[in-house]
Each structure stands twice: as structure tokens, then as C-alpha cells.
């Protein structure tokens, strides 16, 4: 039947409720009551406002629909059924089942899903990134609609998102907050206090529209207004959880619980029975994204021996990569430290200042890559830990994002431990499908930045604050997954492995050892994941299986761990001296702090001698 009148839309909303109940009861798990509260708003959106060619999910002109409250997946999948892209059979047999694409929370395994949600507080920030692309890069009229939960509004990242949406005047973004008064374990902080929500939203610079979320006419008017707005709109929809089935409606204790079969039967009767309504919906306005120029990338070249910080090389290489029109940059208000500002100077129209909002910065990168851009987001490596859940979720989204973390380790010196990344390698290595790079000099840093652009998944580069000598000539290559043997001779007795600043310490240690007549091989492990097991095994075999690893990172999960895991997977046994930061550092000079941490050249040389005498 054609869904046209508000009565028709009411029927559709009831169908969405019934299907949400049916599939979750069949699966024995899921969130039907969270789906039922938002069914009216979604029914109006689907029929009268969302512009999408469901058969062509890749159409760049399509609107975007993101369920920030991803646990309402029964509702989302019931909408997919209503528009005819999944069958009732798939909904009923697939939902939450092993091997099915209808996972418990939505992921982009489904072509109509942009980003994985389910960790609350992320879908809206992701939507900001999609809206940034639409407004500033693609220049397409698509609209981004995000369904949020009211308990979700307690997440700080939601407010980072409202703030940035307003700052960037994202009038193509509408958040719909399903204010059903209840969260998981009971009432939310604000209950149905729509006034307070509205004041907060307005204070952040967005336009708040409080409505009765079960009044189809009011919903229609609010959604229509949102599509015409001059700033981001937030529809505050007062709803009732479990709406439409008296036994659970607005009652505590029903969050995340499927209805038992007998209750489901009664609910379906109360909701008017099963329906098979198909919605046609609105087609997108025809449009193609602004073309992205594809210029020649000419990487910066550095003179051997010149002292250049890898963070500077990162910025300069990123600016060079800007010749590609799909490359975009973001920074957390430290662009003069990370050197992302090198990109800003050349391509201000593709640079998004995210201020000190690291969660939003990573989420915006995820949103931008939804539209096919190649985002690089930079901040101090230490502060990326703040966005770790976003990084973790971006792996679930199969998002391709590049992250640069500067100011690695104790090497930063006087600023002290609050600014030192000492856990970032562990954190980034643990992410599914990630790449972790840690260059020691400017030439390798610049090369690896270009490599990052072509890689998929979460790609991380760790850069160093201080300036150290350029070790490699400009045309040297650094394939991801490789390592460089920087110094070797047939008589090597021990291998010293470093990356970043510790590679320079390893080289100084090798000089010191040479003075004692000890020949040391030195390996630059610039690619920590994937790692060059072959080079490690060869070096170990050639040097009596004596290895020293030195890293400016805590011992857990860092370079030593990566080396040991690689060697143990290859069945190779070694004696390894692992020098890493053990204690809690303070302030000091880089040399003092590296000495205190036990990763100085002298300490590396001593560890090598101990291995040889042991
Ligand atoms: C970051 C995060 N914390 C906790 C949870 C667990 N959780 C899932 S749903 C939920 C309650 C959500 O309530 P609300 O946003 O109001 O949505 P509703 O289901 O009431 O519509 C919670 C706490 C989560 N998924 N993500």
C-alpha cells in the first residue's frame, strides 16, 4: 500500500513496533522497548523526509541515517524491511544469529549503515563528520539524520558533537533525541524535562525543537523544519518506552529484554497485528560530489645528517599529500605542535580544527571517510588515549582513518608525564586490523605518511618531539611491514633494536660497543604492526640470538612485546634484554629522562655487554 496520510504512517509505525517485537522475541534477545518509543518518529522520517535510493546505497546524494542508539537495531532493521531491502524472513531468521549481517548492533556489513554504533555517544559525533563532508567538501544537499537516546545524552562526546556541529553551522545535520525518560537500569538524569534539554542544546548553538514524539503531525512539522534550518537541529521527542503495549509501556525493568512469546502475542494483538507495508519514500536530489583534484605528490626531501623532528616531517609530508583532493586533515588544537598546521597553510578548505575534543576529532575522521575521504587526524599521542573507544569502534566500522600521535615518550622532556605517551603503542597495536608505524628520521616519516594514505583500517604513526639526524637519503623506501638494518657486519655479536628516538640511542650504543671491540647490528623497527619477522629472525640468527630492545614506552604491549610475539610465532628462541620505561617519569631534559628510564645509549650498550658475558 502507498503510505501517504498520517493514518497510513501510523500503520507503518505499528508495523515497525510489531516487527521489532517479533524479531527480538524470536532471537531471544534485543531491545524492543527502545525501538517502540522511536517508531513514530522513524515512520514519519522514512516516508516523508529521508531522501534515499535504497537500491543504490552508494549514491552519493543519498541522505544518511545513523542510529546513535545502536541498540535499537530491531527498529532499524524493521525499517530496512519496510523499504524492501531485507526480507521478513531475513529479519526473523537472521537477527542476532551467528554469521548473519543483522548483528545485535548495526555495522557497515549492511550497505545502508555508515558506521558501527552500540557504544553510546558515538553515532552523533560520527554524523558530524558525514555532515562536514556534505557541507564543505562534497557540496551535496544530502541530510544527516541521527537517532539518539536520552540516557546517551549524558556522554560528553554528545556535547562535543553539538558544539562542533554548531561551530561548523551544520544545517544539514538533525539529531532526534528519543526522550523516553528511561535508560538501562532506570530513569535518566533529566527524565522528561524537555526545557532543560532545550536550554542546553540552544546554549551549544543548535536549534532545539521540543515535540510530542508520538504526535505524527508534530513530528512531521519538526522534521520539515529541520530540513530547512540554518543551523543544526535537535528534535527533542518526548516519548514512552515500549509505546503501544500497555504491559511494558513506560515501565522500568524492560530495557534490553525481549518479550516472552506469550507477551509478544498479546503485544502484537494490541498493536493491531502483523502488517506487510512497503514504503517507497523520497528519492535523493540528483547530485554529484565536487571533483577531487588528483595532483602529483612530491614528498619533502631531507639532507642526510640534518636535524629534523619526525613530527615536522609528518606535517610537511601531509601538506605534500594534500595535492590529492581526497586527503583531509583534522587536529585537536595542537596543530603547531603536531605540525598538522603545515597542511592548514596550504589547504585550509580541507582542514578541520576540532579544538580540544579528541573524541569528536576521531569521530569526524570516521564520518569523513564514510564519504570516501582520506582523513589524517593529529594530536599528542597521549591524548589519543582519550578517544580510544572511538578508535576501537572505528575498527568495527571497518573505517579507514589515519592517526598521528606526536610527543611520544619521556623524550619530550620538561613538560612531564601528563604529556608523555607511554601506552600508545600497546593501545594501537591492540586495535583490530591496525597498522602501527614509528619512524626514526624525517625521510622515513615522510615516506610512511604517504604509505598511510593508501592503507585501510586504523593506521597510526607515532612521532617524536625532538629533532634528530636524518639517517636515510631521500629516495630510500620504507614499505609497511619492513624494517631497516641500519648497521651490520658479518661478525656482529648482538642486535640492538630501536624505533623513534631509541634507534638513535642504539646507534650511539653501537658506536660505544665498537670502541670495546664489540660489533653490534642495529635494526630500525619503523613498522611495529605489521612487523618484519624475517629481518628479526635473520638478525637474531646472525648475532647468537642476543637481542636488546630499547623503547620509549612502558614495557607492556610495546616494541619488546611486538618483537617477542613475532619471534615466538616463528618458533625462534632468543635472549632478549628489554629496556623500557619502568617508573613514573617527571620533568627533566630528554637525556636525563631517558637515562632515568634506562633507555639511554650507555644503558643499551651495558645491556648488550651483559648479554655477551652472560
Ligand atoms: C558507552 C556505553 N555505556 C553503556 C552502555 C550500555 N547501555 C546500552 S543501552 C543503555 C541505556 C540507553 O538508554 P537511552 O539512551 O535512553 O536509550 P533507550 O534504550 O532508553 O531508548 C546503556 C546504559 C553502552 N551501550 N554504551
Task: Describe it.
39% of the residues lie in helices and 15% in strands. The protein is elongated. The chain is of the alpha/beta class. The model has no long low-confidence stretch (mean pLDDT 97). Helix 3 crosses helix 9. A 7-stranded mixed beta sheet has the order 8-7-9-10-12-11-17, with helices on both faces. Strands 1-2-3-5-4 form a 5-stranded parallel beta sheet, sandwiched between helices. It has 23 helices and 19 strands. Residues 31, 34, 37, 69, 71, 118-121, 149-152, 178, 180, 182-184, 188, 241, 255 line the site of thiamine diphosphate.
- Bound ligands, named by name, code or SMILES: thiamine diphosphate
Report the helical percentage: 25-40%
As a percent range, the share of strand residues is 5-15%
| C-alpha end-to-end distance | 83 Å
Summarize model confidence as the mean pLDDT: 97
Number of helices: 23
Please state the structural category. alpha/beta
Query: What is the approximate shape?
Result: elongated
Strand order of the largest sheet: 8-7-9-10-12-11-17
Oligomer: single chain
Low-confidence stretches: none
> Using DSSP, what is the number of strands?
19
The major beta sheet can be summarized as: 7 strands, mixed
Amino acid at each position: 500500500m502507498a503510505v501517504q496520510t498520517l493514518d497510513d504512517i501510523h500503520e507503518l509505525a505499528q508495523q515497525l513496533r510489531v516487527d521489532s517485537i517479533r524479531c527480538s522475541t524470536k532471537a531471544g534477545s534485543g531491545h524492543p522497548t527502545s525501538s517502540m518509543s522511536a517508531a513514530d518518529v522513524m515512520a514519519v522520517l522514512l516516508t516523508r523526509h529521508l531522501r534515499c535510493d535504497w537500491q543504490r546505497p552508494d549514491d552519493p546524494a543519498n541522505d544518511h541515517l545513523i542510529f546513535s542508539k545502536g541498540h535499537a537495531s530491531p527498529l532499524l532493521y524493521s525499517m530496512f524491511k519496510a523499504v524492501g531491502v531485507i526480507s521478513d524472513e531475513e529479519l526473523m531468521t537472521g537477527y542476532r544469529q551467528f554469521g548473519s549481517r543483522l548483528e545485535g548492533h548495526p555495522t557497515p556489513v549492511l550497505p545502508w549503515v555508515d558506521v558501527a554504533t552500540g557504544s553510546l555517544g558515538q553515532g552523533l559525533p560520527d554524523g558530524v563528520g558525514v555532515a562536514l563532508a556534505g557541507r564543505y567538501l562534497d557540496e551535496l544537499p544530502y541530510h544527516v539524520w541521527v537517532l539518539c537516546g536520552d540516557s546517551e545524552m549524558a556522554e560528553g562526546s554528545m556535547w562535543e558533537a553539538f558544539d562542533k556541529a554548531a561551530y561548523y553551522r551544520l544545517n544539514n545535520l538533525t539529531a532526534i533525541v528519543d526522550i523516553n525518560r528511561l535508560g538501562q537500569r532506570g530513569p535518566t538524569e533529566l527524565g522528561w524535562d524537555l526545557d532543560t534539554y532545550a536550554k542546553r542544546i540552544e546554549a551549544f548553538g543548535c536549534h532545539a525543537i521540543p515535540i510530542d514524539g508520538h504526535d505524527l503531525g508534530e513530528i512531521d512539522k519538526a522534521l520539515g523544519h529541520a530540513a530547512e534550518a540554518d543551523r543544526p537541529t535537535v528534535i527533542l521527542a518526548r516519548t514512552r518506552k515500549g509505546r503501544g503495549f500497555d504491559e511494558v509501556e513506560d515501565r522500568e525493568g524492560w530495557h534490553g529484554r525481549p518479550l516472552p512469546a506469550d507477551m509478544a502475542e498479546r503485544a502484537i494483538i494490541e498493536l493491531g497485528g502483523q502488517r506487510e507495508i512497503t514504503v517507497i519514500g523520497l528519492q535523493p536530489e540528483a547530485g554529484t560530489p565536487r571533483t577531487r583534484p588528483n595532483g602529483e605528490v612530491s614528498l619533502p626531501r631531507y639532507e642526510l645528517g640534518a636535524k629534523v623532528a619526525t613530527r615536522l616531517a609528518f606535517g610537511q609530508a601531509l601538506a605534500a599529500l594534500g595535492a590529492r583532493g581526497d586527503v583531509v586533515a583534522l587536529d585537536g588544537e595542537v596543530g603547531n605542535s603536531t605540525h598538522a598546521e603545515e597542511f592548514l597553510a596550504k589547504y585550509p578548505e580541507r582542514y578541520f580544527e576540532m579544538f580540544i575534543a579528541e573524541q569528536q576529532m576521531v569521530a569526524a575522521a570516521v564520518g569523513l571517510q564514510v564519504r570516501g575521504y582520506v582523513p589524517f587526524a593529529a594530536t599528542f599521542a597521549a591524548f589519543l588515549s582519550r578517544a580510544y573507544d572511538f578508535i576501537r569502534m572505528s575498527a568495527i566500522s571497518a573505517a579507514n582513518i589515519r592517526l598521528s600521535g606526536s610527543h611520544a615518550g619521556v623524550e619530550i622532556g620538561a613538560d612531564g608525564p601528563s604529556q608523555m605517551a607511554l601506552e600508545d603503542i600497546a593501545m594501537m597495536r591492540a586495535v583490530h586490523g591496525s597498522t602501527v608505524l614509528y619512524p626514526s628520521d624525517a625521510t622515513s616519516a615522510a615516506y610512511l605518511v604517504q604509505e598511510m594514505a593508501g592503507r585501510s583500517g586504523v593506521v597510526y604513526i607515532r612521532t617524536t618531539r625532538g629533532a634528530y639526524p636524518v639517517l636515510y637519503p631521500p629516495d630510500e623506501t620504507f614499505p609497511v611491514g619492513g624494517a631497516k638494518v641500519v648497521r651490520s657486519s658479518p661478525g656482529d655479536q648482538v642486535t640492538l633494536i630501536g624505533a623513534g628516538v631509541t634507534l638513535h640511542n642504539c646507534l650511539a650504543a653501537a658506536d660505544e660497543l665498537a670502541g670495546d671491540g664489540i660489533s653490534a647490528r642495529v635494526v630500525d623497527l619503523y613498522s611495529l604492526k605489521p612487523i618484519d619477522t624475517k629481518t628479526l629472525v635473520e638478525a637474531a640468527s646472525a648475532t647468537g640470538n642476543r637481542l636488546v630492545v630499547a623503547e620509549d614506552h612502558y614495557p607492556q604491549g610495546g616494541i619488546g612485546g611486538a618483537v617477542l610475539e613475532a619471534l615466538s610465532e616463528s618458533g625462534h628462541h632468543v635472549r632478549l634484554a628489554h629496556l623500557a620505561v619502568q617508573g613514573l617519569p617527571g620533568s627533566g631534559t630528554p637525556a636525563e629522562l631517558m637515562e632515568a628510564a634506562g633507555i639511554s645509549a650507555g644503558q643499551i650498550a651495558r645491556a648488550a655487554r651483559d648479554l655477551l658475558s652472560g
